[in-house]
Design goal:
The structure holds 2 protein chains of 2 kinds. By secondary structure, chain A is α+β, with helices and mostly antiparallel strands. Chain A has 2 domains: 227 residues, Rossmann fold, CATH 3.40.50.300; 88 residues, OB fold (Dihydrolipoamide Acetyltransferase, E2P) (Beta Barrel). Chain A is built from 9 helices and 18 strands. Chain B is built from 13 helices and 2 strands; from the N terminus they run αββαααααααααααα. Chain B is globular and about 75 Å long. Chain B has one domain: MetI-like fold (Orthogonal Bundle). The two termini of chain B are 31 Å apart. Chain B is mostly helical. Classes of the chains: A alpha+beta, B mainly alpha. At the A-B interface, strand 6 and helix 2 of A face helix 9 and helix 10 of B.
Chain lengths: 334, 279
């Protein structure tokens, strides 16, 4: 159970086609992440699966059951919203119990399920508080609690961490991943943050303007991006994409090399340039190199100890086995 | 003290003191009493006479019935209308203005329009409607006088309630409704568990503000029944005492009773709905 199959799903708002017909299969128990820049249709796609939007054409199968005409509540899915969408006038206990009350379960059953969920999410001490009295992270956990009590066949997450601060986001990221391991339920997760996608996903779906650019495991996308869009989107800092003479010499229109695959030296190397901005993270240092004649800036990643200053002349050597070649259409040359 | 406080105190205290002062005096202008000649101190005589009148308790009852019925009607219909107006539809802007327009009609005018255009037993639209269906036209203002007043006043205040409740509905986070839809709540449950609690505060505001104004409803009664057929409210009784009987002292004592009644109602309301405002 928990398999979601999209078959030629298309969505139009009036005459604007936001999602051209697309096919996608999310296997049972998989953690699938939809990632893409804002406005790429990833949230719309999630809402189509949830049933909050109707498909214009095509079909959605959940658990092998044709679901595109089934109302959201009957699809057996739970959703965690970006704003958490907690009910402000209900206590945490009532919030979590709400889907069970709507399903008309008996009181004892509701109580035990709510307390189980609260224990799993460390919310037991907060059960009688209102959402307004909780911190962002706790609200997030209540929203997840409300989703898990229904024991759905799949969870849908719509950018659930974007309202949290950076430290909390890392913590919640781990908690959601752990929850996935423990529940072993299908999860579909929407984010614009490629770090979240890389760290959490079994399968990443990269979307751009409603079109699926590539589907694959995080490392697959990292090592074998299908086109320049995926190459530029996955990985941080972004892959350096160079056109012109260097690329032609390698037999490509565009040549890509990731910042971590370029060695820096102050004495000798294949390319040379001048250091612009440097960003020191402690563990690593990022240098933005200008005047290389390859691209406007080349980003390189070096060890944290390396210390070049603004205006220093340095030399770069790319790892040739880690270069990515793309043709005129931006597609990967194998 | 800030100037604003002084101004407000003066605004409130001067008429209040004057009312209190007259309520302890015999002041019948037509019988030659005047401020220049000095007024006779009569103690609590005006107060006992006002309560002792056979019109007093019925007028309190009428006041409470009008306030209560109008509140119930405007809040319930207001919620329904607000829900309806929140739906996307063609010509939304114009429909909203039309719905709100009764609020711009002066109470006297709306009273006269209702009396002459709608409720007139011979030429009124409602009379024609009754006859069209073969029924005997109802003599609204004499046979169903209190209900007619409630109808007119509700018509006047419904736009206000609708407007406040509509803005409240529009401020509801749509993700909450979607979440409850995903949680398996059918439309009626969504209304009951999500929309209505969200409206709690707005409903409280509507009830409190309307009560203040409804306790002093006057023009609608004056131009329609003139207090006859059991439509005499406390406000109207005071008006009759002061202007028709020309007894300022007795009317002032009634005014003090009206203040007390308003405060009792206010205390009850704050107890019942006021806690909604704390959230």
């Amino acid at each position: 159970m928990g398999q979601i199959v999209l078959n030629k799903v298309q969505k139009k708002f009036d005459d604007v086609e936001v999602i051209p017909p697309l096919d996608l299969t999310i296997e049972d128990g998989e953690f699938a992440v939809f990632v893409g820049p804002s406005g790429c249709g990833k949230s719309t796609l999630l809402r189509l699966i949830a049933g909050l939007e109707d498909v214009t054409s095509g079909s959605i199968q959940i658990n092998g059951r044709e679901s595109s005409d089934i109302p959201p509540a009957k699809r057996g899915l739970s959703m965690v919203f970006q704003s958490y969408a907690l009910y402000p006038h209900m206590s945490v206990r009532k919030n979590i119990a709400f889907p069970l009350r709507m399903a008309k379960l008996d009181k004892a059953e509701i109580k035990s399920r709510v307390e189980n969920a609260a224990a799993v999410l460390n919310l037991t001490d907060y059960l009688d508080r209102r959402p307004g009295q909780l911190s962002g992270g706790q609200r997030q956990r209540v929203a997840i609690g409300r989703a898990i009590v229904r024991e759905p066949s799949a969870f849908l997450f719509d950018e659930p961490l974007s309202n949290l601060d950076a430290a909390l986001r890392v913590g919640m990221r781990l908690e959601i991943s752990e929850l996935h391991k423990r529940l072993d339920t299908t999860m579909v997760y929407v984010t614009h943050d490629q770090v979240e996608a890389m760290t959490m996903a079994d399968k990443i779906v990269v979307l751009n303007a409603g079109v699926i650019e590539q589907v694959g495991s995080p490392l697959d996308l990292y090592h074998n991006p299908k086109n320049t869009f995926v190459a530029g989107f996955i990985g941080s800092p972004k892959m350096n994409l160079m056109t012109g003479e260097v690329a032609e010499k390698a037999g490509a229109q565009t040549l890509g090399v990731r910042p971590e695959h370029i060695a820096v030296s102050d004495s000798a190397g294949e390319w040379s340039g001048v250091v612009g901005v440097s960003e020191h993270l402690g563990s690593d240092s990022f240098f933005h190199i200008h005047e290389t004649g390859l691209a406007e800036t080349i980003t390189v990643r070096a060890d944290g100890e390396v210390n070049f200053k603004h205006g220093d002349q340095i030399f770069l050597t790319p790892r040739t086995d880690m270069m990515h070649k793309f043709d005129g259409g931006g597609n990967r040359i194998v | 003290m800030a100037p604003a406080v002084i101004l407000l105190l003066g605004w409130m205290l001067v008429p209040l003191t004057a009312t209190l002062y007259f309520s302890f005096k015999k002041y019948l202008p037509l019988r030659g009493d005047s401020l220049e000649n000095g007024l006779e101190w009569v103690g609590f005589q005006n107060y006992t006479r006002f309560v002792g009148s056979s019109s007093f308790w019925p007028s309190v009852q009428t006041t409470l019935i009008i306030v209560g019925s109008v509140l119930v009607i405007t809040v319930i219909l207001g919620v329904l209308l607000a829900l309806l107006l929140d739906q996307p539809m063609w010509g939304q802007g114009i429909v909203r203005i039309l719905i709100i327009s009764p609020f711009f009609v002066m109470p006297t005018v709306s009273g006269l329009v209702w009396k002459n255009m709608f409720m007139d037993p011979i030429n009124g639209i409602l009379a024609h409607l009754f006859r069209f269906f073969g029924a005997e036209p109802l003599q609204w203002l004499s046979q169903a006088s209190l209900q007619s007043i409630v109808l007119i006043v509700s018509w006047q205040w419904l736009p206000f309630a609708t407007l406040i409740l509509l803005t409240a509905i529009q401020s509801l986070d749509s993700e909450q409704l979607e979440a409850s839809e995903m949680d398996g709540a059918p439309a009626l449950s969504r209304f009951w568990h999500i929309i209505l609690p969200h409206l709690g505060r707005a409903i409280t505001v509507v009830i409190l503000i309307q009560t203040i104004f409804l306790l002093s409803v006057f023009a609608e009664i004056f131009v329609t029944t003139a207090g006859a057929f059991g439509t005499k409210t406390l406000t109207y009784l005071i008006f009759q005492r002061v202007l028709e009987s020309q007894n300022v002292g007795l009317g002032s004592a009634g005014g003090v009773y009206a203040i007390i009644l308003a405060n009792i109602v206010a205390i009850f309301l704050m107890r019942i709905v006021g806690k909604n405002l704390d959230r």
